[in-house]
């Protein structure tokens, strides 16, 4: 692996994104780490990455805003092209559809799905020009099977799967591999309030996943040399979705 390989990890100040950034840094990548507002968390991850001997550049912007995204990334892309793009940015605004507000729908779709377009549209030309790269989109089991109370979130994550599959057909001939990981119940801030006693019976291996479980699969998709996986969805869910 070349020492100057760069991984752009979108939404990496905490949780799954943080674990992915650290795992890729361990694999020899310098990290472009994006986040929205949690400056302290981002600085903490940067320190951890630098302690591994890798470089880390922080970029704070709102992925749902196309102009913010383009402005933040364009300057970096003038000097370098990331080999890896991991799109992990996502929020939840759970509610039953009958009670769901327009803002709850729009905010989730704009961050989770529009954000992918905003980032990928900005980065993809440079990757095509380089004729190399790997893109991993973090979707969710909710995007595969749906989840009551998450019509907005399930729609956004299902949309990511469709977008990634279509993109895979577009860019595969340029040696850019595109795949999706779909985590199930992973122990993060997003899931800490969920009733584990109701969830665990649904999972054949009887435990929640860890962020490292997700990061290890993403790392494999980004680093394995003998790679023929393209346009696929890999579930990381302990058997929740079979």
Could you say how many structural domains there are in total? 1
Number of E-type strands: 7
CATH architecture classification name: 3-Layer(aba) Sandwich
CATH topology-level name = Rossmann fold
Order of strands across the main sheet: 3-2-1-4-5-6-7
SS summary, helix count = 8
Structural class: alpha/beta
**Straight-line distance between termini:** 35 Å
Largest sheet: 7 strands, parallel
Mean pLDDT over all positions:
95
The amount of beta strand, in percent, is: 15-25%
- Helix/strand order: EHEHEHEHEHHEHHE
Determine and state the CATH class.
Alpha Beta
Task: Give the overall form.
Answer: globular
Residue windows where pLDDT falls under 50 for at least 5 positions: none
CATH homologous group name = NAD(P)-binding Rossmann-like Domain
Structural Rg: 17 Å
What level of helicity do the residues show? 40-55%
Keywords, please?
242 residues, 8 helices, alpha/beta, seven-stranded parallel β-sheet, Rossmann fold
Describe this structure in words.
By secondary structure, the protein is an alpha/beta fold. It has one domain: 3-Layer(aba) Sandwich (Rossmann fold). It contains eight helices and seven strands; from the N terminus they run βαβαβαβαβααβααβ. The protein has helices at 15-26, 39-51, 66-79, 102-130, 142-145, 151-171, 196-199, 211-223, and strands at residues 6-10, 30-35, 56-60, 84-87, 133-138, 176-183, 233-236. It has a seven-stranded parallel β-sheet, sandwiched between helices. Helix 3 runs parallel beside helix 4. The longest helix has 29 residues, at 102-130. The radius of gyration is 17 Å and the shape is globular. The chain starts with 5 loop residues before the first strand and ends in a 6-residue tail after the last strand. The relative contact order is 0.15. The mean pLDDT is 95.
């Amino acid at each position: 692996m070349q020492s100057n390989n760069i991984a752009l990890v979108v939404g990496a100040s905490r949780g799954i994104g943080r674990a992915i950034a650290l795992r890729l840094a361990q694999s020899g990548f310098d990290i472009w780490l994006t986040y929205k507002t949690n400056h302290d968390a981002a600085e903490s991850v940067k320190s951890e990455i630098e302690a591994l001997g890798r470089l880390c550049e922080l970029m704070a912007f709102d992925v749902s805003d196309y102009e913010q995204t383009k402005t933040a990334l364009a300057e970096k892309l003038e000097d370098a092209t990331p080999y890896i793009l991991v799109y992990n940015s996502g929020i939840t605004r759970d509610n039953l559809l009958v009670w769901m507000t327009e803002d709850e729908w729009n905010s989730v779709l704009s961050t989770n799905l529009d954000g992918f377009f905003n980032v990928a549209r900005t980065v993809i030309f440079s990757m095509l020009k380089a004729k190399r790269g790997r893109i991993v989109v973090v979707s969710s089991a909710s995007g595969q099977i749906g989840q009551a109370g998450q019509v907005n979130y399930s729609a956004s994550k299902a949309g990511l799967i469709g977008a990634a599959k279509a993109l895979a057909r577009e860019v595969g001939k340029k040696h850019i591999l595109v795949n999706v990981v779909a985590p199930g119940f992973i122990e993060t801030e997003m899931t800490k309030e969920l009733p584990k006693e109701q969830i665990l019976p649904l999972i054949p291996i009887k435990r929640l996943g860890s962020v490292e479980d997700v990061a290890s699969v993403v790392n494999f998709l980004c680093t394995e040399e003998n790679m023929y996986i393209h346009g696929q969805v890999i579930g990381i869910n302990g058997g929740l979705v079979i």
